[in-house]
Amino acid sequence: MNKYSKVSSYIMVAMLLLGVFFVAIPNVKAAPVTLNIVDAVTGSSNLSFTTATKNVGDNIQINLTITGTVDMSLNTYQFRVSWDNTLLDFVSLAPPSDDIFSGIPPGASRVVAGPDLSTPGSVLYGVAINPPVTIPPSTWGFNGTGRLAQLTLRIIQGVGTGQSVECNISFTEMLVDTFLLDKNGNDFTSSFTFNMAHYKYSGPAGPAQTHDIAATNVAPSSTSVIENASLNINVTVANNGDFTETFDAGVKANGTNVALNQTVTNLASHANTTLTFVWNTTTFVVGSYSIVAIAGPVAGETNTADNSRSGGIVQIVVPGADHDVVVTGVAPINTAIGQRFTLNVSVTVANNGLFTETFDVAIYANGTQAAPSQTVTNLNAGQNATLVFQWNTTRWIINNSIVEIGNYTLSATATPVPGEPNTANNTLIFGNINVMLPGDANGDGRTNMRDIVYFRDSGAFNAYPGMTRYNPQMDIDASGRIDTRDMLIIAINFGKKL
């Protein structure tokens, strides 16, 4: 066997492992069809139950279906379904005996990923078909209507008289965790309509009395304060419940109390009052502080979402620092990016001065601007803003050529504003970004079967930043998730090397 025959054999094996052959044909969108989440018994997207029909601990069964006719063969799908995990708990997810791939050709096999439950309140699941070697993948795929899987959830939140709880059960993370590929590996997710279900669990009819305290307004007297000076913060609290209540209220700056809590005594039902807290900044360092007021909770209160309220950002500044813009954060979505892909970079800037400012922000790689500048307009004193830049390594030019493979030092700079004395904090260096050979999952400078095996055996599927099994080198498209798309990139770039 000559070297060209060997390479062809390797490519054939890689495609079989991935369940996809890549054919250079134009993308053709499928006719509109729907993916639905419905009650397995009634077929309705309205999953409505009462304490007369269901108890806490009972299961509900849900079908995930395709309605309509798929006019372009479906070979691979992946979806994430999410719900409120304080109301419902996961029990199981499995394909029924009559699922859409039950009629695959003899000798064909399934590649199944999941169910993955690493994100509370959701499940990730995917299936691809490997046709037998006697049938080219480009000639077979699912066409028609049917069920993808059956999801079972358990009721875990009870309700009382006059009460109900509800949430949506829906496909989420569209085009990231939820997508469909045709027999040629083309993404035709946009050809589908995704319908959600609505879950509601109700108690017996009748009025229900509640305890409900809320912080309704937080108003610092200024968005900036000189260090070691004091600032007043007015907080309005309300009793939205049906009982007279006594409770404590307080204010925190970046999680630290700005003053002693105050007690609200015998606040009548549906009444409100305003408290003034004096923040002496003597023990706080110069910087930006997120102000949050907290009221209660009281005994028996179930709705605590409104017990806290933001008062925005207050900036502690040094005397005389009238103008001061600063880059406070640089956060690329990944520390590695395949050459010719696009890396999203979030940059946070703050106005540490005492005047509203307008200024430009840019990101740099090895000192060369990596994306168009963006303008921050009328940023108030003590406020911050986050911008998202896209470093497109296909079009980015350095040294009169497209970006080369290697490590680049990523930084962000805010253009100094007129009268700004302190420009040292206008630039923030993030660190190294690895621009790598596309598909080189193991970092050996070649894209070949070693990368496919490494990807398959790594256990990194569905990993994202913050998880121990996440490997930035394997998130080739820097999407923030290691998924089927990264696996396909390896196959597309098979045989490339430095």
Brief sketch in words of this structure:
With 498 residues, the chain is mainly β.
> If you average the pLDDT, what whole number results?
84
CATH arch. level architecture of the largest domain: Sandwich
State the distance separating the first and last CA atoms: 25 Å
Which secondary-structure class do the elements indicate?
mainly beta
CATH third-tier fold name of the largest domain:
Immunoglobulin-like
Q: State the helix count.
A: 3
Form type = flat
Strand count: 32
Helix content: under 10%
What Rg is obtained from the alpha carbons, in whole angstroms?
A: 28 Å
Beta-strand level of the residues, as a percent range? 35-45%
Low-confidence spans: 1-30
* Name of the level-1 CATH class of the largest domain: Mainly Beta
Summary keywords:
Immunoglobulin-like; 3 domains; mainly beta; 3 helices; six-stranded mixed β-sheet; 498 residues; disordered N terminus; 7% helix
Would you write up a description of this structure?
The chain has 498 residues and is mainly β. It folds into 3 domains: 3-202, Sandwich (Immunoglobulin-like); 213-317, Immunoglobulins (Immunoglobulin-like); 325-492, Immunoglobulins (Immunoglobulin-like, Sandwich). It is 7% helix and 45% strand. The protein has helices at residues 3-18, 449-457, 484-492, and strands spanning 33-39, 46-50, 59-67, 74-82, 88-94, 109-116, 122-130, 146-155, 164-172, 179-182, 192-194, 197-202, 213-220, 224-226, 230-239, 245-253, 256-257, 262-267, 272-280, 287-295, 308-317, 325-332, 336-338, 342-351, 357-365, 368-369, 374-379, 384-392, 397-398, 401-402, 406-414, 427-436. The strands form 7 sheets. Strands 2, 4, 6, 7, 9, 10 and 12 form a 7-stranded mixed β-sheet that branches. It is flat, with a radius of gyration of 28 Å.
